[in-house]
# Entry
Amino acid sequence: MKVEYKLFAILCVFCFGVGIWYGIWTGWEEPVGVVGLFLTGGLCAMIGGFVWWTARKLGPRPDDDPQGNISDVEGDYGFFSPHSWWPFFLGLSGAVVFLGLAVGWWLVIIGMPLLAISAVGWVFEYFRGENAI
Amino acid sequence: MADVATATAQTSQPGIPAGHGPVTRPNMTAVGTMVWLASELMFFAGLFAMYFTIRSVAPELWTKNTEVLNVPYALANTLVLVISSVWCQLGVFKAEQGVPFRTGKLLQLGQWGMREWYVLTYIFGSVFVAGQVMEYSELVHEGIRLDSDAYGSMFYLTTGFHGLHVTGGLLAFLLIIGRTFTSRRYTHHQATGAIVTSYYWHFVDVVWIALFATIYLLQ
# Structure
């Protein structure tokens, strides 16, 4: 995964460099740009650092081999829900709660139990009893 | 990042242990969580930018309001949150070993599983949130309100959004703990859920340290 973390490392150095340049340019009197650019560098460092750290544990993948074939990456990618209504209800009840912030607290009070039920339904759907994944 | 744990590659079939599939690949849930947390950093970047901008244009508000802040109290509360991250990480180690609950007596800490450590994390996290609420009530008595001046708006927006994140993390802990009760086996998917929740918790902890340093130490 060298390519991935190198990409983010370059972006990180770039953002910090531009942040310092921006700071000098504005005489360190305009904080929004400096904070924004430095933390964008932090964003790149977070993702790049995590990818680097994962790469250390996993070793090279078939994707890292220039001579690799597409068939080398076959196999199980993980669990994907084949069909579920819970995200729909979760989104709907979330919308009711946030609408309530604009309309009135009474709507939030109605939305909260719905949000709790759909969150629990969504989280527990595949984690029940014998057939838990 | 050195002290947080990762989930290695895994398969959807519980019979196949992690890393024994045809190909080892990064855990998609873990990578996705980190990308999302990086975007959360940008959310807090907006709040920090707001803080420094208002501070640079209205320094007199800072000299007036920062002397009201109770720094030792906030430091103690910060310590509670940092320690909760330690408990959370101990829970992650147990999740990685596939130990969902304790195998010994309640006071045999070494025999604790993920569930016990996460409950302890939950308790420390809720003490932190309760501490924040107490501090808010103190500050409101001192006249710092959301609508009192720009300092009040800044203070409650930054710490309030962080407090909402901590509260969301507490709810996530409840769901993760709940899963260990409802399913028969402790699978890699469950461990992944526990581990990515710990990523979130550590992230929120680090953001608080930055907020604490900015609001209380740098002032």
User: Anything to note?
Assistant: The CA atoms of residues 147 and 158 of chain B lie 14 Å apart. Chain B has six helices and no strands. Residues 6-22 of chain B have pLDDT under 50 and may be disordered.
